Amino acid sequence: MTPHVMKRDGCKVPFKSERIQEAILRAAKAAGVDDADYCATVAEVVSQQMQGRAQVDINEIQTAVENQLMSGPYKQLARAYIEYRHDRDSQREKRGRLNQEIRGLVEQTNSALLNENANKDSKVIPTQRDLLAGIVAKHYARQHLLPHDVVMA
């Protein structure tokens, strides 16, 4: 049975070991490691670890890849993969809804947020603090407190 991968955005996609191999190859290139066979072997080992399961989380896959790389001969490849994942996570976070809303407040470009209460001047620090608290609380509730179907409604 081929598992499905639960992505960060909540959608499920079929598991593809090629995606693991591509990520390892990119890290290998960054680390100056020219061993495509080793990268393919690591991807295959991780793929075998995931087989037989109905669903796997993307973080489980990343951890399995990191563990395989750290136990292998190319420590610099393991470090490059971890740094690559960290950079991708940072980029994803920058593109995320929370950062966009905060940036809209700070840069004064989110007119819906800035005009949500005509009795408050959104340019003064105490009001911005209150608006920022609202943004963060709303994001936290969507991510951690409310059921997915409620958030999507």
Automatic annotation (TrEMBL):
> Which top-level enzyme class is recorded in the Swiss-Prot or TrEMBL entry?
oxidoreductase
Stretches assigned to the ATP-cone domain: 3-92
- Highest taxon of the lineage: Bacteria
A single MF term (Gene Ontology):
ribonucleoside-diphosphate reductase activity, thioredoxin disulfide as acceptor
Q: Which UniProt keywords apply?
A: ATP-binding, Nucleotide-binding, Oxidoreductase
Q: What is its EC number?
A: 1.17.4.2
Q: Which GO terms describe its cellular component?
A: anaerobic ribonucleoside-triphosphate reductase complex
The GO annotation for biological process reads: 2'-deoxyribonucleotide biosynthetic process
Matching entries from Pfam families are given as:
ATP-cone
* Alphabetical list of InterPro entries matching this protein: ATP-cone_dom (IPR005144)
Q: Which PANTHER family match?
A: ANAEROBIC RIBONUCLEOSIDE-TRIPHOSPHATE REDUCTASE
Protein name as catalogued: Anaerobic ribonucleoside-triphosphate reductase
Tell me which species this is from: Klebsiella variicola
